[in-house]
Structures are given as C-alpha cells and as structure tokens.
Design the sequence.
C-alpha cells in the first residue's frame, strides 16, 4: 500500500484566505506603529518651545505652591459690590527650593469681580516669588491664584481611567488623540496665530491633520477610517466655506470675542482677529462633524460586513437614513454647547428688558448665532457627503477584511 499522502488540490479560496490573514496582520502592525509614532510626536510637542517664552520676565521668579497661614483685610475697602485695596497674608511655601519658609505676601484687589480673588486662611495658592539676583533671597511675594493643578490632574487621570476601562485599547487611542490634539492646538496653532500666519488656511490644515490622526488612531487603516476621514474633512471644508461667506455678510469683528482687545493692547496690532474668529467657527464644529462622519461610516461598515450583497445605492440610502436620525440631536447638541457659556449674558439682557431684535443684532450675540448656525450647517452637509463617499468606498469592488472593521 502506498502510504504517500497526496497533497490537497490547489484552491483559490485558500490562497485568498492566506492573503486575508496576512492583510490582517499587516493592518495590526501598521496600527501599532502608528500609535507609537503619535506617542513620539506628542512627546516632541510637549517639549517644543512656543517661541513666546519671555526669560526676562521669569528671571529670578519662582511659581510655587503655598498655604495661607493668616490674612489681614484691614486695607480693603468695599465700594458697592466690589472690594478694592490690598489683602496682606502670611504664606508657607510648600514646594521648590523655599519649601517650609514663611513669607509675607500681598493680593491686590482691582475692583473687577471677574479677576479678583479673595483668599482665606487655609487656602492652597499658587505664589509668585521674586528673589534677589545676588543673594537668592525672597524680596517680594504675592498670591496669584488658588492652586488647582492637583485637582485638574486628578480629574484628567480619572477621565483617562474611565475611558480606558470602558473602551480598553480603543479608549487608550482615544485618550492619546485627546492629548495629541491639545498639544497641536497649544504648541502649533496658537503660536502660528500670534506670529501673524494667515489664520484660515493654517487653521484648516491643522484641523485636517488632527482629524486624520484621530480617525486613524480610532479606526486604524481601514475602509471605515477612510470613509469617516474623507467625510469629516469634507464637512470641515464646507463649514469653513460657509463661515467665510456668512462671516462677510454678518460683518462681526473679531473684537467681539473675549480677550481679543487685550491682544491688541499687548502689542499684537497686526493680528487678523476677524479671520481668527472665523477659524474658531470650524475648529469648534470639527468635533461634532467627526462624530457625524464616524456614525455614518460605522453603520455602513456594519451593513457592508453583514450583508455583502447589498448594492451601492442601498448602502448610500441607509447612510442617509442614519444621518437623518443623528443630525436632529447633533445640531441641538451644538446649541447647548455654545449657549452654555452664554447664560449670564442672556440673563442680563432679559433682566434689562432688551427687545429681541436689539439682542440678536448685537456683535456679541451675532457672533454666537454665526458660530451655532454655521456649525450646524456643517453637520447637515457632512451627513449626505459621508453617506455617498461610504457607498463609493465600501462598494469599490475590492473585498478586504477591513470592510466591517
């Protein structure tokens, strides 16, 4: 008897399965390398100088944590609802080279309730210590702010733990995208604005970059990622276009936004404040646009994976239906998000009995209306765009394992 075992016949399906497995491994390796790359870039951004550090202002100056031991309010004067004068106090330094030392400090009350702080015994504060350049001793001290950094870090750590605990590896990548985006905005976008780089194009490039990183971190290099990314960038581009068009029609100056005048007084006379304001419109809407694009891309991916025989037209129609269901709540979400910081202004207008026509034409209110409506317009537009792109990409005729990913 011939014990030689005949090799199984060659089948195309087996070859296809082999390359499918290889594609899956390649995708996983690519995703891992991309995550490591984003971690590296984030670390570089963390140490990257903004170019606006002022060594002469921090020379012989230390910012240290301190505890208020006692206060003296005898020099404060009340004028109506506000306090003016100087609050004296004794501080015990809790960090740095002067840890354990006690020093007399001041807190100047300017009569502006939005920026004045009133400290009491036992408060933990951030102190600003001026030292003598020769002896190194403290020559003056003031209490700048309540010390909140530890609570802020604890809140961020709790947020990260909940996110990773719920979403595991995806949660870690979402947290990484959060950190990366914050670093890009602070270390790249804001310094470029201050240097006078044209705001609209650089803001669009930065938003497109961060959107790409976020989408690829969450979805990996898959068709779902391609659909969500292309839809999100298209939505941001349309939002930017409408921001420019209606910004010109509204004629709202950039000085309508808080702190803009302080930049002019600080010497940045050449800043294009209106363009920076318009850039902020599509920057603010980018997150909601990404959510909408991801919702439609994920639902189409699920349909294409579970029903491979679905036609392109049916897939696009399904994407439209998902978009119709989501867009109603997402536009209201933007209204809540933008109007939340506007509550006190609305209360003031109502308390004064201001007519609605007058309120809606004010620069400050018109800026909020422009921000809300243009952002909502971008959400409405991104839904059909993503649905059409999803139908084209998922049914492009090339089957891969990432379709339902």
Sequence:
């Amino acid at each position: 008897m011939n014990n030689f075992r005949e090799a199984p016949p060659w089948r195309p399906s087996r070859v296809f399965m082999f390359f499918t497995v290889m594609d899956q491994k390649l995708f996983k390796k690519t995703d891992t390398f991309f995550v490591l790359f984003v971690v590296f870039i984030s670390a570089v951004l963390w140490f990257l100088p903004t170019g606006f550090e002022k060594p002469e202002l921090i020379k012989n100056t230390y910012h240290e944590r301190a505890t208020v031991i006692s206060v003296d309010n005898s020099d404060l004067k009340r004028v109506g609802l506000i306090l003016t004068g100087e609050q004296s106090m004794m501080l015990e330094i809790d960090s740095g080279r002067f840890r354990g030392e006690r020093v007399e400090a001041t807190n100047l009350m300017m009569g502006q309730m939005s920026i004045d702080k009133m400290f009491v015994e036992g408060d933990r504060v951030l102190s600003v210590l001026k030292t003598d350049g020769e002896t190194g001793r403290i020559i003056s001290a003031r209490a700048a702010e309540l010390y909140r950094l530890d609570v802020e870090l604890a809140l961020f750590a709790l947020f990260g733990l909940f996110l990773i605990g719920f979403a595991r590896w995806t949660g870690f990548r979402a947290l990484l995208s959060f950190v990366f985006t914050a670093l890009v905005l602070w270390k790249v976008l804001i310094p470029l604005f201050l240097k006078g780089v044209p705001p609209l194009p650089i803001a669009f490039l930065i938003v497109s970059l961060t959107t790409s990183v976020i989408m690829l971190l969450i979805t990996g290099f898959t068709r779902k990622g391609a659909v969500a990314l292309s839809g999100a960038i298209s939505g941001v581009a349309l939002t930017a276009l409408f921001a420019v068009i209606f910004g010109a029609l509204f004629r709202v100056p950039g000085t309508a936004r808080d702190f803009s005048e302080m930049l002019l007084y600080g010497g940045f006379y050449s800043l294009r404040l209106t363009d920076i304001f318009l850039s902020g419109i599509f920057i603010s809407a980018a997150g909601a646009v990404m959510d909408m694009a991801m919702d439609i891309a994920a639902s189409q991916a699920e349909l294409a994976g579970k029903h491979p025989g679905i036609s392109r037209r049916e897939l696009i129609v399904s994407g439209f239906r998902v978009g119709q269901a989501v867009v109603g709540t997402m536009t209201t979400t933007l209204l809540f998000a933008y109007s939340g910081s506007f509550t006190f202004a609305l209360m003031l207008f109502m308390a004064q009995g201001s007519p609605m026509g007058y309120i809606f034409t004010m620069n400050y209110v018109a800026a909020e209306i422009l921000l809300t409506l243009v952002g909502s317009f971008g959400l409405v537009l991104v839904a059909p765009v993503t649905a059409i792109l999803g139908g084209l990409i998922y049914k492009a005729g090339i089957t891969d394992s990432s379709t339902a990913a």
Observations:
- The chain has a mean pLDDT of 85.
- The chain has two domains: 60-147, 196-394.
- The longest strand covers residues 61-72.
